[in-house]
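Why predict the complex rather than its parts? Because the way molecules touch one another can change local conformation, and only a joint prediction can capture that. The input here totals 913 residues.
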Amino acid sequence: MSSSSSTKVCFNSSCKDALEWARKGWRRRTGEFADLCDRCASAYEEGKFCEAFHLNASGWRCCESCGKQIHCGCIVSFHMFVLLDAGGIECITCARKSFILTPNPAWPPPSLFLPVPPERTKDLSTKNWCPIAGSDPVPWRQAPSLLSSSSAQPDLQPRMPFEVGIPSGIDRLTSTERLSASSFEKNKLEDSYERLVNGSQKLGAADILENGNAGISCGEQVNPSVNMPHKSPFSNNDTSTSRFSVAVSPNKASDQTKVSNSHAPRPTPSTVGKQFCGHNGADPFGDSQICNGRPQVDARARNQLLPRYWPRISAQELQKISGDSNSVITPLFEKMLSASDAGRIGRLVLPKKCAEAYFPPISQPEGLPLKVQDSKGKEWIFQFRFWPNNNSRMYVLEGVTPCIQSMQLQAGDIVTFSWMEPEGKLVMGFRKSSTAPPSDQGSEPVNASNGVSTNGDISARKIKTGEVLSKTHPLKGKLITSGYLPIDLANSADQASPWSKDVKSECVSKEVLGAKSSFRGTKKNSTLGSKNKRLRIEKEDVIQLKLTWEQAQGLLRPPPNHVPSVVVIDGFEFEEYEDAPIIGRPTIFATDHLGVKIQWVQCKDCFKWRKVPPDAFLHARWTCPSNSWDPERSSCSAAQELTAEQLEELLPISNRAASKKMKSSKQDPDSVDLEGLDALADLAIQEEGEGLDASSQATTKHPRHRPGCSCIVCIQPPSGKGPKHKQTCTCNVCLMVRRRFRTLSLRKEKKLSEKEAETALQKLQQHPNFPVIMSEDNIRIITGEGNSSPNQKMVSTEVPNDDPGRMRSSTLSPFKGQIDLNIQPERDEELSPGSYSDGVMRMLQDAAERDHTQQRFSSSNNQNCTDQTQVGGNGVGVNFGNSMIAFHRDPESEHPEPLSANAPSASTSAAKR
DNA sequence: ATAGGGCATGGAA
DNA sequence: TTTCCATGCCCTA
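Output of the joint prediction:
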């Protein structure tokens, strides 16, 4: 999204000034921001836009509390007021004082206005809920009891500001749907629904004109929060109130879906909730209502529907779901399939809040059958039930295996649940997490990053690997503020969320200003990463990267030929790029003896530094042969232009000491801190290439495996669901298995030359169950017999049989003929506490040796996971294919610290011999 | 012996 | 600290 077109004019129809430099105004229905001239943008940002331009327009009303005049008929001021239950409006300031934090909502889902069955028992049993019966309106989707005063709940709690939001909407829905509604309410609701669907009724400030003019109605409101992305003090709440539903009809589908979907589809009706929410924030429906047939204990707990469950369904998906019908699709929630979800157990764990909010209430663990239609129109019946769990419940959908298999889903993919009206059907869509081409089975994969719609707004922008907000820090120049570090680029599912930008930038800004580099902000918001830690660097590991934002920025380059749009947030300028950043090779900018700006870059292979133009974009794997600027030095064999001394001068001061230390070593003068960036880049590239591999997303941690565990269990799809692995397969699992075996073999080779190994072997051969336990560590023998699993077979076939010792090498386990999935072959030497540094260096030497030996190996073994050892500067990186360890040698101490982990070894305890 | 149901556990939020 | 939830594992059929 580039808002810096020179041909544009100010979006304000009263202005129309030519724009030299556009500033962002309110969010348009297309999703783009209104481009404003300086003057109008300032007015908008100061909240004086309507005063300046709409004074004569209709729609001005007074705040019921303070009397302030608010322009209620305009998109520009839409977020400046709230509609009061008793009529009238209140300015947002007063509303906040009254604990009303939700701004004006978008359209509520029509399902909220469904007719209500005459009687609702507190505990809705399966009898009352008959999804299988067909198209009857679903009782549990009944409307809120508008006038119900069922607030006499035992545990009614005042709603605190942070409790207001989507979840409250859910709560209200949940609560009220458990209540009876009078016929009056019913009629009213039906009427409301009717009018809503027919578009004849505009809610509150629905008379909003996209271009900011007042008084002209349009059918859709924009998310108010996006109107003030830079200054909302409670943007979370704001955004959380976005609700929408989509009326999909053949003749207007494109428009409506487009518009509707320009907001993050968040189906729960805070609108309605808001409308009927008391000023004091108390829930008029009672927080303690029965939910799913049981009393709610903690209202606050229900008020959090995690962002990762917010549905992000594209218009296309919705349209596919609805087909040609006039159905109204209301996305309810989505969930990324975990390994167990996608496994053959056939149980899909439902997020509790979602289950309680959107699924029929159940009071018995057996639950009830639930008819769900998939995106192909095929209907499935799942058992919706729960298990008691820690005084709570754990909701599951049972019997999902056929459906999941039918949709060819695996762990990491996302299933979406929507509600379709008037059919009254639960619809299950899906989104593949991989970059696989769009499936014909329904919801197409929007983009690799679990993307959203493609129709215009932030959420709609196609974001391949992440959108970067780079921030120009007044002191330090550009900093990355979005938190979209490469590590998360491929994984962050919420990077496309319409508000993530704001949230993140705010979050990161704080971190930056707090002089603390942390990726937490990003991770917290990462939908995918929130649970699928296999793809993430652990918090601690990230910290160990010892990267500052500035350093990380060094890895990212703006997309070529891309003019950023600039956003000012909290006084800081952010450059915003629509396209993914380029993950670049760390370089050193300098000026040559002629005063010409140049860039020094280090070859990935030979580590020699090459001079390139200052504006050159260099991929993280840049090597000498890519040096088109200097043919004489376009080969790794060519000498380095820079002397070590010169390089030292170029390096950051803080690194020189370390550099000096390393200078005397045999290693090439490496890039010191750049090593860390390098490592990060490596990882990013690996993630780039592999991170989206469904198989690698397949599982999450499991209790028996520590964080960082890269065992097959942790990284492979469950229950053999994944594709068959060929011998040449380069998926994570295969690579890891090969790598594991290779290192095992190499180590064995080494050990065989030692008497100790001989002794061990003798012992081994004397063992009655040879091959069996050789030691207590977790190294295993691969015998070839009893290997029944595909992986093990694969290993067997991968085993080079040129060395029989290798076949028996390595380690043993209590499990005969099995590979220890947790084996950490690189750590076969115990590192005594006092010799950490030695141990690491020894390991690195081993790695170097392996690297050497590897080359022999590689020639006969098709693989992409060539181990790399980089030693130099004060940083030492060992790259084990997709697992990388980088050590940062602290100049102050002799103890190298892990720069990054996510490696199968080195960061965990050493195996004992 | 195997598969599935259901609970327990423990990491993460 | 509490709650959620992924998944391990026991028990039963």
